[in-house]
Automatic annotation (TrEMBL):
InterPro entries recorded: Aspartic_peptidase_A1, Aspartic_peptidase_AS, PEPTIDASE_A1, Peptidase_aspartic_dom_sf, SAP-like
Classification via PANTHER family: ASPARTIC-TYPE ENDOPEPTIDASE, BETA-SITE APP-CLEAVING ENZYME, ISOFORM A-RELATED
Protein's GO biological process: proteolysis
Source taxon at top rank: Eukaryota
Name of this protein: Peptidase A1 domain-containing protein
Taxonomic lineage from the root: Eukaryota, Fungi, Dikarya, Ascomycota, Pezizomycotina
Endpoints of the signal sequence: 1-19
Length: 494
């Protein structure tokens, strides 16, 4: 396993104890924002490009044991790998699933550990991976903030080599009886004012992004933050996924031409635990034809595309609009959707299908056909968006991400909901530093960045499963019912 980089301490002037609210904001470069970020918590995330997944380094137990967890808006359980888990101890398992465990938790070493032995933990994600064990309670420290007595899964059997930090709705926990999630406890323990957080994954080329609990960082997005409602389960009215209406998708070329490929709303789930984006198959096909991409998902699990798109100055963008004409518009540049990762897979034994016109310069494409009527906007979309998830008012606010910025201006999200604020006017240029940590003004409690696992660490061996991107969404029949119930079955173009 790769060694973790040394901890990087960042200014920690904000106090969680004060009751003062943020009252004003300064967006100017030199103007220091008010040091009142009291109830927001910044957690650095790490992006290891083709490694997929964004990891947060957190600690669990007393004394703290450091674990690295995949940050997942698409599920709601926090779980860690027991140091005795089968994947962590069995070389046969490690061979089958392509590597050992990233960072494990050792219950006897924690004096605050409480077993919940009669609460079985069993989770299965959409890609078939999963974990089994029991629940337990212990303290967890995230972004320098201690959350007491969180219920977490302890995996004894796992096919995933790292735990997960599920930050979705509590209705979506894997347990039979819903329990308070980490977001619920942050709010209940007064660490944030409202169950809401912002996720800034940053550009593909950047090593890390941030998650900010209870706050919004106006330096991290462009223009206005615009909210759209989260779609509840159509039958029960319960909110369990960050499903929103994607009202249009346009391929926008610099020569002024454009091609609108989605014109009727499609429910999509915003899922940071999913590497790629999954759209209705008919639409994905249409895009492949327009761009000359080759869909080989049925065999090697990839969609191939000419790497020329990475270098081309064509400036093609995929313009995603939500909630209708006045809703948020996120423009994803083509170089965020074309991934130069195929050669890594080839070295690992991937057979590229013969006869492709761009065989010498082959990249993979970050939009795949969705399955079972579940459409996910994963990291290939989310990197271009600044997304605020408000689990209390059931809203998601989005804006174009200001990628590569090192600046920070954090505002607390109050009980009133996501503040009606503007971000910066134009995209940051060449500001990316070695760490990507916030610059002056980012006076937030923060923890370190983690290194992420090798691309082959957590996935099954063999091209088929290896290249199948992880979809961590909990496999729930209800999800399909929910979406179709809400949006109307006719909108599903399977
Ligand atoms: C968890 O248990 C179920 C039921 O016994 C089993 O089907 C599944 O494969 C197990 N998952 C893991 C990751 O071992
Ligand atoms: C296409 O891009 C241009 C700017 O390059 C923008 O003004 C226009 O609104 C975009 N069109 C769509 C449909 O998103
Ligand atoms: C490159 O950009 C030009 C227009 O600027 C476009 O005609 C061409 O199709 C693009 N090719 C690729 C591979 O993106
Ligand atoms: C972000 O930084 C990377 C690496 O320096 C650069 O390649 C990319 O173009 C930048 N993105 C933007 C939108 O400036
Ligand atoms: C990402 O993964 C690659 C290949 O495994 C590794 O060489 C690199 O150091 C990693 N980068 C970070 C920031 O962890």
């Amino acid at each position: 396993m790769r060694v973790l980089p040394a901890l990087v301490a960042v200014g920690c002037a904000a106090s969680f104890a004060t009751a003062q609210r943020v009252v004003s904001m300064g967006i100017g470069k030199t103007k220091r924002p008010p040091p009142l970020h009291k109830r927001s918590i910044l957690q650095e995330l790490n992006n290891n490009l083709t490694g997929g997944g964004y990891y947060a380094e957190v600690s669990v137990g007393t004394p703290p044991q450091t674990v690295r967890l995949i940050v997942d808006t698409g599920s709601s359980d926090v779980w860690v790998l027991d140091s005795d888990a089968n994947l962590c101890t069995s070389s046969i398992m490690q061979e089958e699933y392509g590597g050992g465990c990233i960072a494990t938790f050792d219950p006897p070493e924690s004096s605050t550990y409480t077993a919940l032995s009669d609460a079985p933990f069993q989770i299965v994600y959409l890609d078939g991976s999963g974990a089994n064990g029991t629940y337990f309670q212990d303290h967890i420290n995230i972004g320098g903030t201690e959350i007491e007595s969180l219920q977490m899964g302890l995996a004894e059997d796992s096919t995933i080599n790292s735990g997960l930090l599920g930050i979705g709705y509590s209705a979506n926990v894997a347990a039979r009886d819903p329990y308070p999630t980490i977001i619920d406890l942050l709010e209940e323990q007064g660490l944030i004012a409202i169950r809401a957080y912002s996720l800034w994954l940053n550009a593909y080329s950047a090593d890390m992004g941030t998650i900010l609990f209870g706050g919004v960082d106006t330096e991290k997005f462009l223009g206005e933050l615009i909210a759209v409602p989260v779609l509840p389960d159509g039958r029960t009215g319960i909110y369990h996924s960050f499903a929103v209406a994607l009202s249009s998708l346009t391929l926008n070329y610099t020569d002024g031409s454009s091609d609108t490929v989605i014109q009727q709303p499609v429910p999509v789930i915003l899922d940071s635990g999913t590497t790629l984006t999954y759209l209705p198959p008919r639409i994905a096909d249409y895009i492949y034809n327009a761009l000359g991409a080759v869909d080989d998902t049925w065999y090697t699990g990839l969609v191939y595309i000419d790497c020329a798109y990475l270098r081309n100055e064509s400036g093609l963008t995929f313009d995603f609009q939500f909630g209708g004409d006045s809703g948020p518009l996120v423009r994803v540049p083509v170089n965020e959707v074309v991934l130069d990762n195929v050669m890594e897979y080839v070295e690992m034994g991937l057979p590229i299908p013969p006869g492709m016109p761009f065989a010498d310069d082959v990249c993979s494409f970050g939009i795949h056909p969705g399955d079972q009527g579940i459409y996910l906007l994963g990291d290939t979309f989310l990197r271009s968006a600044y997304v605020v998830y408000d689990l209390e008012n059931h809203e998601v606010a989005m804006a174009q991400a200001n990628v590569n910025t090192t600046r920070s201006n954090v505002l607390e999200i109050t009980r009133d909901g996501i503040p009606d604020v503007s971000g910066v006017a134009s995209q940051a240029t060449a500001e990316q530093t070695a760490t990507g940590l916030p610059g002056p003004g980012g006076e937030l409690p923060t923890v370190t960045v983690t290194a992420s696992p090798d691309p082959d660490d957590g996935e099954n061996a063999g091209p088929k499963t290896l290249t199948a991107p992880p979809a961590w969404e909990v496999a729930a029949v209800a999800a399909v019912a929910a979406l179709s119930g809400l949006m109307g079955v006719g909108l599903f173009v399977l």
